[in-house]
Amino acid sequence: MSDTQRIREIPYNYTSFSDREIVVRFLGEEMWEVIERLRGSRRTGISARLLFEVLGDLWVVSRNPFLQEDLLADRGRRTALVAAMRRRIAEIESRAEGNPLALRLATAAREAVARFEAWFPRQLELRRRALRALARVTRRDNVDFSPYARVAHATDATDWRVELPFVVVSPDREEEVAGVVRACAGLGLTVIPRGGGTGYTGSAVPLDEASAVVNTEKLEGLGPVELRRLPGVDGEVPTIRAEAGVVTRRVAEAAERAGYVFAVDPTSQDACTIGGNIAMNAGGKKAVLWGTTLDNLATWRMVTPEGEWLEVERVGHNLGRIHDQPEVRFRIRRYGADGRTPRGEPEEIRVPGAALRKAGLGKDVTDKFLAGIPGVQKEGCDGLVTSAVFVLHRMPAHTRTVCLEFFGADLRPAVEAIVAVKRHVEERPDVVLSGLEHLDERYLRAVGYATKAPRRELPRMVLLADVSGDDERAVAEAASEVVRIANAREGEGFVAASPEARRRFWADRARTAAIASHTNAFKINEDVVIPLERLADYTEGIERINIEHSIANKLRIVEAVEAFLAGPVADALREGRDYEASRELDAILEAKREAAREVLARARARWEALLEHMDEPAAAHPELLDEAARAALRPGDTLAALLLRRALRVSYRREVRRPLEEIFAGEAFAPVRRRLDAIHAEIRASRLFVALHMHAGDGNVHTNIPVHSSDYRMLREAERVVDRVMALARALGGVISGEHGIGITKLQYLEPEAVEAFAAYKRRVDPEGRFNRGKLLPGGGLERAYTPSLRLVQQEALILEESALGALNDDIRHCLRCGKCKPVCNTHVPRANLLYSPRNKILAAGMLIEAFLYEEQTRRGIAVRHFDELADVADHCTVCRKCAQPCPVDIDFGEVTMRIRRILRERAGRRGGLVARAAMAFLDATDPRAIHAGRALLARAGFAAQRAAHAAARRLGLVGPRAERRPPAPTTGRPRPGAQVLHFVRRPVEAAVPPRTMRQALGLGRERDVVPIVRDPARAGDGTEAVLYFPGCGSERLFSQVGLATLAMLWETGARTVLPPGYLCCG
User: Please, which residues have CB within 8 angstroms of residue 301's CB and are 6 or more apart in sequence?
Assistant: First the structure.
């Protein structure tokens, strides 16, 4: 068996983990070495399969909260699973024949199963204690142990996961947070602050299973824009106060309504929150003018690891970029648990502004110590920021957006345009550059960019610039000058003046997450900062990586094609309709194989030579140059230089595919061509490439590598690419992060002295790890992180012939977890305890699909509760489809919901309770007598009973104005019976039911094959507009006045109203 096959022998592993990583997680590194030694002595086989089945069970349950919840609730199923694992271990021991290594391995597995078994009662006891402790400081409804909440808070936009959180707590008010932190500390839980969950480095990903994620989305207090006097600042300054859970876009809109600008505008601003912006020191396109979050903070408030309060105030704010200020001062005041009692004397931090970022860079978030300034840039590791006051800025009166498209083969002049544009605008005293963004050609392809120039090809690079000023004529002049800068560098420019045109220009920049859609939404997302004068060198370095990996991928394809040709090619021919074996055909085939091998050998030799001699003078290797390359040769050109300018090309299509198609031409060899195309498609899909987009004005380059998380080799190769990217950034004088932070993805690249500086700070302020335990400390990187692979789930669904689950998986597998769906979703209203954004529902649906497939494979039977949990996902969708528009990869969760409902109907025969079934029978009825009886029973008697119940509940204070002011109950899972009753009687229904249904009032019969048309003959002719009116069976039968009023309104307009056939149900 090959090493590639051995990577995934453990069953139920739909993740990026290899067998080794799973073994190490449960049994330790030493036991993996034991397995390797036993394999080497051929002592494995059935025993290895039994062990791997045990590990598969442990692995899938440990990462799937829905499976955990089922086993927590059903002791019988739990006991049966543990017994099955122990039987397998006993069989391993019986087969060991006294082999000490095999027996050690069995003992380690038995201990792992014992830990697994003990986890469940310990978890139940901790839940009981946690609920009691947390309910003293926040409502019980805000404490959520559900699998839905746990999986939704296990990862961020990265999709990396390490541990599931123990509990999710969502405080109603800022004042509750200190009590929550103290309660968690008493339980031994580490607190992980979380806002929108849009991070790109895993800062909010739990590293410890004893984690309480504190979701701050309910802390949504947003004050008015106020003019304040700030300490050490002359005059009043426009400011705005926002709590940690306020979505960044809301702050920007509030500032804009008052005529100001909020400078913090990351690409995720539709979903990220203020607390996260502070913890990460977020930036955005406006940072080029006004800096990042740190630069714009006036004061902020946070809870300390002791569960007390701390307020930080900036003294002498320069109202601009912080690194331009010679000395920066922060005053820190501490308060007790009540938030009012002072603790000691105020402290002051003084630090040179230049020390807060690496010299010469516009952004830098790699200094996690940051002079000991609390909260900012600490990624939730030293406390929880609950609110802040920001300074606002005045936007110049006029702005024009310039779109520059560069088509030249040589990227260096295009990239150097960034510096030229920035320098030119900054030299003008009457305008400012308020944004400068970059997209490379891979991003342009991913977002479906529409070229503005009258050309057929996509640009190689696009720059978007906002030029602003108070003098409209000066702004127009500057915009035109920027276009001329592009014209001199094989670029074309377009200027947008109106707000609508400017929004259209910027729209593509908001869809950059789509770069990962072809790899099932997983990408390694790095952001580095490069000195502006070295951006061209960085771009060429990245393109060099792309060229090398493209050639290496082509060589892998050649190797696979050679292997295919060396095998029984005739087997492929048998797929053809007219295949007949003969010696003559064998001779023809052998001649064709030999010709194909020559083509492959030529291509291989040339491509390997290009890789080997890439940095040597091109003139020294004329045999590697084609006619076009020779014509484009410049003095001093290396082969790499020609490849970078695309004067020299490596083409699989031209050098291999077309010659092979000619060799294997004709209908008889069509199966061979199909096999060759399949080999090419499969291996090409694993080709790595690096795509760039930049906050170009400050050199912040987002460097993204889409990866198939199911492809272990591709993941490991991507890690090596990241190593090169980070080394390149440092070599050019840059830093490894400008706004994404460090989290778990970049810790290995942080300088040891920077790690130790933060570790010393952490030991001083949070020695017990009460916040984000293990994060930003040695061992807190990607060592234990994995990502699910929906591609593997898809393959499993095909094997098990679960087409419906496979189709559902296919619907959701491109989700990028960016959160852009959250602001428009009717069922994501944190204040109402509704956290059912499409993003969260997709995370839950993915885990439920995995649970279904696992339980079908193990033949233990699918837990009934999984159908209820899937129904919970579907029930929290109104099928309004508003989420489809902002989604970068065009997921329509309305369609997903309809598919889930079909699965539930087919698999679970889903039915409601007695009342729901009676109501549906009434709405489904077509016989007038049944409808009349239903109206009498359900409507008249039922409505009267409901009104009586409402009146009683109102007298008891259970409903009414006072009850309406109470915070909403939880919405996750099946509602409590009491909550259902109160919801049913919350509003009284109408007392009077119309005596006749709408169809009876119109004198229509019950014929289902008649389509009535209602019109005014005097005004409605054949050419009159027709309107299809679907009244709905409920309003048609119970509230006929609604339907009749609608028909009357349409009659008055002169429309022809078409009604559906009698009693047509919508579904």
Answer: 174, 309, 310, 311, 312, 385, 386, 387, 388
Residue 3: per-residue pLDDT: 46
| CA–centroid distance for 107 within its chain | 40
Tell me: do 947 and 1046 sit in the same domain. Answer: no
What residues make up the domain containing 1051? 998-1058
pLDDT tens digits along 167-225: 999 999 999 999 999 999 999 999 999 999 999 999 999 999 999 999 999 999 999 99
pLDDT band at 23 (very low <50, low <70, confident <90, very high): very high
Is residue 921 located within the same domain as residue 880?
A: no
Structural domain includes residue 443: no
User: Which pair of structure tokens corresponds to residue 621?
Assistant: 């290797």
Read off the CATH number of the domain in which 855 is found.
Answer: 1.10.1060
Distances 820 to 198, 216, 246, 275, 891 between C-alpha atoms, Å: 9, 18, 15, 18, 11
Is there a domain that residue 717 lies in? no
Strands 1056-1058 and 1026-1028: parallel
> pLDDT tens-digit profile of 90-117?
999 999 888 999 999 999 999 999 999 9
Co-location of 61 and 113 in the same domain: yes
Query: CB neighbours (10 Å) of residue 477?
Result: 16
Using alpha carbons, list the distances in angstroms from residue 902 to 843, 855, 867, 870, 898: 19, 20, 12, 11, 6
Please check whether residue 526 lies inside any domain of the structure.
no
Residue 2 confidence class, pLDDT cut points 50, 70, 90: very low
DSSP code per residue over 275-336? HHHHHHT--BTTHHHH--HHHHEEEEEEE-TTS-EEEEEEES--SS-GGGSSEEEEEEEEE-
On whether both 803 and 949 belong to a single domain, the answer is no
Contact 473, 390 (CB under 8 A): no
Place of tokens 């009244």: 1031
Range among 38-42, 333-337, 1019-1023, 1058-1062 rated most confident: 333-337
What separation in angstroms does the CA of 94 have from each of 26, 88, 89, 91, 430? 22, 10, 9, 5, 86
* pLDDT exceeds 50 at position 5: no
| Residue 691 host element (H or E) | strand 691-695
Same domain, 372 and 233: yes
Point out the domain boundary residue: 351, 374, 391: 391
Residue 42's pLDDT band, with cuts at 50, 70 and 90, is low
Q: Exposed, middle or buried: residue 1000 (CB in 10 Å: 0-12, 13-18, 19+)?
A: middle
- Where are the alpha helices (H) located in 399-534, listed in sequence order? 411-427, 441-446, 472-487, 499-507
When divided into structural domains, the chain yields a total of 6
Closest CA to 914 of 938, 946, 879: 938
Cβ proximity of 366 and 736 under 8 Å: yes
The answer on 978 and 1015 residing in a single domain is no
Residues near 272 by beta carbon (within 8 Å), at least 6 away in sequence = 195, 196, 198, 247, 248, 266, 282, 819
Q: What is the pLDDT of residue 298?
A: 98
Same domain flag for 243 and 382: yes
Average pLDDT, the chain: 89
Instruction: Say yes or no to pLDDT of 517 above 60.
Output: no
Which residues does residue 891 pair with via DSSP β-bridges, in sequence order?
none
Contact (CB, 8 A) for 191 and 181: yes
Is 544 a residue whose pLDDT tops 60? yes
Continuous H helices in 685-785: 712-731, 752-765
Distance CA 23, CA 79 (A): 23
What is the percent of the chain where pLDDT is above 90?
67
| Residue 803 and residue 930 in one domain | no
**Residue 230 to residue 840: CA distance in whole angstroms:** 41
In a domain, 974, yes or no: yes
Q: Which of 663, 686, 709 is the last residue of a domain?
A: 686
CATH number, position 238: 3.30.465.10
Distance CA 659, CA 602 (A): 11
